[in-house]
């Protein structure tokens, strides 16, 4: 009896040791993936025309910068779940007062925060497809915002969040980048280049790097954008401006981003996007 108890004790002790080693492994692995520190590549920031700079404040809306980071980009709590993470879209207006253009560009286009951490949620993999001039113009627009407000708290990642990162279920933006380098929306030639570029830099965050649909979050899938083949320009414009699809049914996330972000697109942008996506749909059929 006594020896049986002793063995049960050893077993319990062994399980605790294994659990502790596993927890330490998850913590160390996720920490390396999240906090690096990562070194950013040098950014070329030339090529912004005066017209692009003048238009860039509007584009902060189209790209969702304002809806995620809040009014004036003063920061907004994005995830608040003790098991997953407490994570802010930071107060970029305050950060910009201290950061160089190189640091801001690395955050936007490489997914590396000003402190060298790998960014999560911030769609930098999609923004890696922006041109040098577009990034420079966006930085100019950020710098036009009144700088200030309190710094947003640093992110904290909970146990489930760390497990997800360590096992590759949640990928940071530098990790996602590889998909965006390899998988592109179909190239339909120069007549469709503008619409393709817009889709690649605005829609691919949720519809996937090649626009063929993706799981946006557990239980929510976005369709292949071939679905736009069934939309005429009027119905497509209505969807992007109001979130109401041709079917009239109630959308969820798409409804939110259409009203908050895409309602700021110009008629010209919507027409280019429509022409490209219809062409892409016809090509696939
Ligand atoms: C889907 C929401 C979302 C969108 C859209 C978005 N951001 Fe972010 N952004 C975030 C989050 C969340 C973080 C912080 C991520 C982290 O800490 O892991 C972040 C981080 C940043 C940082 C780095 C700040 C730091 O602490 O180093 C900058 C700069 C930035 N965003 C600028 C922009 C700009 C400019 C745009 C538009 C071109 C934009 N963001 C669009 C959510 C978003
Ligand atoms: C933040 C994520 C997100 C972004 C960015 C996004 N979508 Fe969506 N979209 C979705 C999701 C999710 C759905 C599925 C419907 C829903 O929201 O419940 C969807 C559905 C759609 C549909 C199908 C509507 C229908 O008839 O059922 C179309 C068309 C569409 N999106 C076009 C676009 C275009 C064009 C862009 C870029 C300008 C874009 N989306 C950007 C998440 C997104």
TrEMBL record:
It holds the Pfam family Cytochrom_C. Residues 54-146, 190-281 form the Cytochrome c domain. Keywords: Electron transport, Heme, Iron, Membrane, Metal-binding, Transmembrane, Transmembrane helix, Transport. Gene3D superfamilies: Cytochrome c-like domain. The keyword Membrane applies. The keyword Magnesium does not apply. It comes from the Bacteria. InterPro entries: Cyt_c-like_dom (IPR009056), Cyt_c-like_dom_sf (IPR036909), Cytochrome_c550/c551-like (IPR051811). The chain crosses the membrane at residues 7-28. This is Cytochrome c.
């Amino acid at each position: 009896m006594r020896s049986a108890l002793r063995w049960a004790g050893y077993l319990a002790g062994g399980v605790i040791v294994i659990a502790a080693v596993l927890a330490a492994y998850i913590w160390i692995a996720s920490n390396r993936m999240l906090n690096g520190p990562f070194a950013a590549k040098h950014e070329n920031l030339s090529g912004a025309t005066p017209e692009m700079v003048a238009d860039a404040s509007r584009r902060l809306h189209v790209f969702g910068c304002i809806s995620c980071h809040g009014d004036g980009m003063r920061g907004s709590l994005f995830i608040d779940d003790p098991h997953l993470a407490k994570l802010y879209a930071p107060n970029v207006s305050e950060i910009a007062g201290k950061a160089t253009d190189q640091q801001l560009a690395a955050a936007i286009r490489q997914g590396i925060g000003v402190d060298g951490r790998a960014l999560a949620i911030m769609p930098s993999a999609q923004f890696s497809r922006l041109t040098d001039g577009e990034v420079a113009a966006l930085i100019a627009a950020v710098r036009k915002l009144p700088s200030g407000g309190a710094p947003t708290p640093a992110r904290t990642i909970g146990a489930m969040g760390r497990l997800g990162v360590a096992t590759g279920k949640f990928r940071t933006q530098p990790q996602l980048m590889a998909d965006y380098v390899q998988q592109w929306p179909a190239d339909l030639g120069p007549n469709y280049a503008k619409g393709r570029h817009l889709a690649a830099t605005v829609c691919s965050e949720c519809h996937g790097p090649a626009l063929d649909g993706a799981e946006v979050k557990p239980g929510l899938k976005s369709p292949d954008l071939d679905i736009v083949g069934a939309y005429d320009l009027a119905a497509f414009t209505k969807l992007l401006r109001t979130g109401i699809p041709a079917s009239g049914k109630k959308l969820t996330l798409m409804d939110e981003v259409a009203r908050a972000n895409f309602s700021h697109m110009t008629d010209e942008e919507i027409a280019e996007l429509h022409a490209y996506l219809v062409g892409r749909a016809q090509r696939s059929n």
